[in-house]
Design a protein that fits this description.
heterodimer, A: 318 residues, mainly alpha, 77% helix, B: 333 residues, 0% strand
Chain lengths: 318, 333
């Protein structure tokens, strides 16, 4: 396991370097000049422009620019945001808590819905409950997050306006107090939770169906254990092992969903920072977030592998 | 794959019923046996597919949508970009079946036109992904060794790429340039954007197919029929294309089908975030993006394109589900 882990981590680092080169090249090859503002400004003489370009190293060959960027990035210097003029770390980390809270709670809610639904569906295969649950999963899986968000806004902020069930449709970070904050988080979390739950539920059901046919489940029944005990302690425990991996692997997809959700509900998180950064060509911010997501993906891939190996003793890596 | 091994129940049950029927009428057995000899593989798959009721509904809905958007757009003949041709934000009525939008344009005309683009993007982007994925997977699985390691590392790297951020970034940075380039060269800037979006979505989505195809190739290349083909001197390309590929087609078809739905969602997401096609091209995602601020005044503007995307993707997913059952040889009678 130890040697496997080292190899896995080394491989991840190579992958990350490759990804950073890809992202850097895309930004470097993109048309448009980061100093576009100055180029059109008649008050800035060409000599001064050339000097600025030189001081930023903009005319250096691409591999030298990449090397200096990478070196600075590793030292924790992610540059300064073009639009808000504050260090990128500060900007990104100020946006992070909201996103983590929304994604985290949507995962919790999604898992809490998916596991019982999936397990009961599998145990009562072909029943009405199973059919309803699988249909629900299929619908949830096919509805794009941006549309489910709009449907929720229409129901809770337009139709139910003025009733006690109304929810605010714009997220306001100035709001204080526990209840108002919960209230304004319900819709963004619900959208992502629905998406999570739908995918997971199908997986839990499939995995559970497979486990219920195993010999050890029959043995457990044969020795006279109660059905609930067999299902919860013998079948479910084992069926959920691959599910854990899927949850870890879903994290990056959910981040994509979070970008959309934050845009719909105007949640001031990382996803919105990314969109704002792209639209205003705030390259340091875009680079930091895009690469940050890549790091997340790679880390969660490693976590998924490790979890799988620790939870399932039959799996041996060497 | 979250939906593997799902909804296998209904067709299997139907099979059992069929057999019971046969036993009940022994006289019919001979007749059935004769019919059965004439069945082709694809015929079997089609028979199996027809048993999946929701997949058939999906197929009907999708066929209607494709027909209506591709033909209807021309037949309907109303302008898609004539602001204030009608009064603004009128709910659906006899004059404007789907109502008008906040700029006084006919929503139905825009839906028809946009549907063509959304569906075309989905089909072509998924084809790009399947083509790239199948080629890479086939090469890695067939030749093995160093090439395999290299290609699989490449696949791993692509899987770890932050998809949505990259997609947003590329379409934002390159759209303008590509549009003006194609505008100057061919007089059709939007074609350039179409090609850009389709290839970026395709290039960010080939990895699952590649892994699938590689695994199938690894299993197939050791089979006797491949050995036999090799012994009579089949060339490598012949082995790959004529002997192995047809045998691994089923999972590719299923992956391709589901990929179309995913690509439609991806393109709509892009448009919904205000990137992708320019505002004079009314894709479904773009219409939703423009309508979302008027949800209070005229909900139909947002609901109609949203429901169209949802319906299309849902139909495709059900078709994919039906295909998975139909193409699984363990389930054919």
């Amino acid at each position: 396991m130890g040697r496997y882990l080292i190899r896995r981590v080394l491989l991840s680092i190579v992958t990350l370097i490759a990804i950073s080169i890809v992202i850097f090249s895309i930004l470097a090859l993109a048309p448009g000049d980061p100093l576009g503002e100055f180029a059109t400004n008649p008050n800035v003489p060409p000599e001064l422009q050339a000097k600025i370009r030189e001081s930023y190293g903009l005319d250096d060959p691409i591999h030298i620019r990449y090397r200096s960027w990478a070196w600075q990035y590793l030292q924790g210097n992610w540059g300064e945001s073009f639009s808000s003029k504050i260090p990128v770390q500060e900007y990104v980390f100020s946006r992070l808590p909201v996103t983590l809270a929304v994604i985290g709670s949507s995962f919790v809610v999604g898992i809490l819905i998916a596991i019982p639904l999936g397990v009961i569906s599998a145990v009562k295969q072909y029943s009405l409950f199973d059919q309803l649950a699988t249909t629900f999963a299929f619908l949830g899986f096919s509805i794009p997050t941006f549309f489910s968000g709009i449907v929720l806004i229409y129901i809770f902020s337009v139709v139910l306006q003025g009733t006690p069930f109304a929810l605010p449709f714009v997220f306001n970070s100035q709001v204080t107090g526990f209840w108002p904050n919960v209230q304004q988080s319900i819709m963004p979390v619900a959208v992502l939770a629905l998406f999570n739950a739908a995918g997971l539920m199908r997986f839990v059901r499939a995995s559970m169906l497979e486990t219920l046919n195993q010999d050890y489940v029959r043995t457990a029944r044969a020795k006279g254990l109660r059905e609930q005990v067999v299902i919860v302690f013998h079948a479910m425990r084992n069926a959920l092992i691959p599910v854990v991996t899927i949850i870890a692997l879903q994290v990056p997809t959910v981040f994509g969903g979070a970008v959309v959700t934050e845009q719909i509900f105007r949640v001031p998180g990382i996803g919105r920072a990314l969109i704002d950064g792209i639209l205003s060509r705030d390259i340091p911010v875009v680079m930091a977030i895009t690469f940050g997501v890549a790091i997340l993906v790679v880390i969660f891939n490693v976590i998924a592998d490790i979890l799988y190996a620790t939870l399932d003793p039959r799996i041996k890596y060497d | 794959m979250a939906h593997d091994a799902d909804i296998k129940a209904a067709p299997r049950r139907a099979v059992v019923e069929d057999r019971l029927d046969e036993e009940a009428q022994p006289g019919a057995a001979l007749h059935l046996a004769r019919v059965r000899e004439q069945r082709s593989l694809w015929g079997n798959a089609w028979r199996q597919f027809r048993r999946h009721r929701l997949a058939m509904v999906g197929l009907a809905v999708l066929a209607t949508l494709v027909l209506v958007t591709f033909v209807g757009s021309t037949l309907y003949g109303r302008a898609i970009d004539q602001p204030f041709e009608y009064s603004t934000s009128v709910p659906p009525s006899l004059d404007n079946l789907f109502g008008t939008d906040s700029l006084g344009q006919d929503v139905l005309a825009r839906i028809l036109w946009g549907g063509r683009i959304s569906i075309a993007v989905g089909l072509i982007a998924a084809s790009v992904a399947v083509l790239v994925g199948t080629s890479i997977g086939a090469l890695a699985g067939f030749f093995g060794g160093f090439l395999d390691t290299l290609l699989m590392r490449l696949t791993d790297m692509f899987i770890s790429l932050p998809q949505l951020p990259l997609l947003l970034l590329i379409s934002f940075l390159f759209t303008e340039k590509i549009e003006s380039f194609f505008g100057e060269q061919f007089g059709a800037g939007n074609v350039g954007i179409f090609i850009l979006i389709v290839s970026v979505i395709g290039i960010l989505n080939w990895m699952p197919t590649a892994r699938l195809v590689r695994a199938s190739f690894l299993a197939m290349r050791e089979k006797e029929f491949v050995e036999a083909a090799r012994s009579i001197g089949a060339t490598r390309s012949n082995l790959i294309l004529r002997h192995i590929l047809p045998n691994v087609l089923s999972p590719i078809i299923v992956a391709a089908t589901l990929g179309v739905g995913q690509a439609i969602i991806t393109e709509s997401t892009l448009s919904f975030l205000g990137l992708g096609f320019p505002s004079d091209v009314p894709t479904w995602g773009r219409m939703l993006f423009e309508a979302k601020d008027y949800i209070q005044l005229s909900p139909h503007e947002a609901f109609i394109p949203g429901i169209m995307i949802f319906l299309t993707v849902l139909s495709i997913n059900y078709i994919g589900d039906g295909l998975r059952d139909a193409l699984d040889p363990r389930k054919t009678q």
